[in-house]
Write a structure and sequence with these properties.
The protein is about 45% helix and about 25% strand. The protein is α+β, with helices and mostly antiparallel strands.
Length: about 220
């Protein structure tokens, strides 16, 4: 896969041909930067004027207060946007992003993106449409997370989390992160999560693999009769 083909597969460039992507990159002065595992891709409370798009790799979002206390949040994978809050609003973000593996990020200066509209015409309109869809998708995912965390029990959180990902991934065998990251996403203790998963397995409600889980819908319906 060529570099242009690799970028055309990103949601940010959806509906753009390779030559249109090249025009966009040239007009906005956009460029890639590589990060080694453990590097900070973004730092909390620092000025940032660019939107980042993960081209390859994964990042971990860390929320950070003024005293330097950090809490792990969600992961960002290929195609994810980062830095939009600080770049667009001009306000420092309370979140940092650290590379979990070697990661490549395409950086697009926000001001250059806005002022390039007259030169790029249709291309600019498509990119802005893609951005709007990305922001709406982000809000939708945040709403889903709030719904999961509002459940009364850990079991209910796990079930709803998996149901949401079944729909998103369009498969019964849902790809899930490791237990530590899953515990963070479900806002619970890792030991409590492990115990509940084991209980659900013993009850025939859940089947698990190294990186996947599958709900038994027939058993789930029986429990809710």
């Amino acid at each position: 896969m060529t570099k242009d083909e690799e970028l055309s597969d990103l949601p940010f460039f959806h509906d753009l041909a390779a030559d249109e992507i090249r025009r966009f990159l040239h007009a906005t002065g956009s460029g890639e930067k590589r990060y080694a595992k453990g590097d900070r891709i973004l730092r909390a409370y620092e000025d940032n004027g660019s939107l980042g798009v993960i081209v390859e790799g994964r990042g971990q979002v860390l929320t950070e207060d003024r005293f330097g206390n950090e809490a792990s949040s969600h992961m960002l994978e290929r195609g994810a946007l980062l830095g939009s809050t600080s770049a667009i609003l001009g306000a420092p973000s309370i979140a940092s992003v650290v590379a979990l593996v070697e990661t490549r990020v395409l950086w697009v200066a926000w001001r250059a993106l806005i002022t390039a509209g007259t030169r790029l015409g249709r291309i600019h309109g498509i990119v802005m449409k893609n951005l709007l869809e990305a922001f709406c998708r982000k809000n939708y995912l945040m709403t889903q997370k709030i719904e999961v965390l509002s459940q009364k029990t850990l079991r209910e959180r796990i079930i709803l989390y998996l149901l949401q990902r079944e729909a998103a991934q369009e498969t019964a065998d849902v790809t899930v992160p490791g237990r530590l990251q899953l515990a963070r996403e479900l806002s619970c203790n890792r030991s409590a999560l492990t115990r509940e998963i084991r209980t659900m397995e013993d009850g025939g409600l859940l089947t698990t693999g190294e990186e996947w889980m599958r709900l038994n819908h027939a058993r789930l319906e029986e429990e809710h009769k």
